Amino acid sequence: MADRPHPANRLPPGATLDQARAKAARCRACDLWRRATQTVFGAGDPHAKIMLVGEQPGDQEDRAGQPFVGPAGRVLEEALAAAGVDMAQVYLTNAVKHFKWEPRGKRRLHAKPRISEIQACEPWLEVELSRLRPRVVVCLGTTAARAVLGRPVTIAKQRGRVLSTELAPAVFVTAHPSAILRAPDAASRARGRTQLVADLKQAAARAR
Fold this sequence. Notes:
single chain; 8 strands; alpha/beta; Uracil-DNA Glycosylase, subunit E
């Protein structure tokens, strides 16, 4: 995590998760709010032992105002179930709280957030980590990993390793479910799901 949060997003000491959620709803620290429907803050069990962090909300999440309710969310829910984890007992959030997209005809397609946009959202992620104090954080994709760990990482090098930060004693890095959906063929998608389930099982074992 960055040492200095974006000035527009500074929170008072002791700010609660609900206070952060309310302030994030009015966030103007970067330009993503201009084209997004709404801020999509984290949701789930406030006493969760496992926090899952993705990159940013997608099209359906942007419209619904909830994280992981689209196709990637269904992949994640299935993988959690296969790993023996109840989705109702985890906390779901994203490194970036607004949907960044580019038009493709009538569709709104995901566009990768810039470093400055990730940094603008760091106070929200930091308060989620500091208030929940999960035993385990699972970073879904490299953007999430960079936001949590404060440095660039690659999934190939860090997958299966137990990493840590000041606010997260155990951090795991795995692929984002959307990357599985984008795999070129059925065999690749099946392999990606198997790897995701294995990573979630490892995280769940650590959280016990």
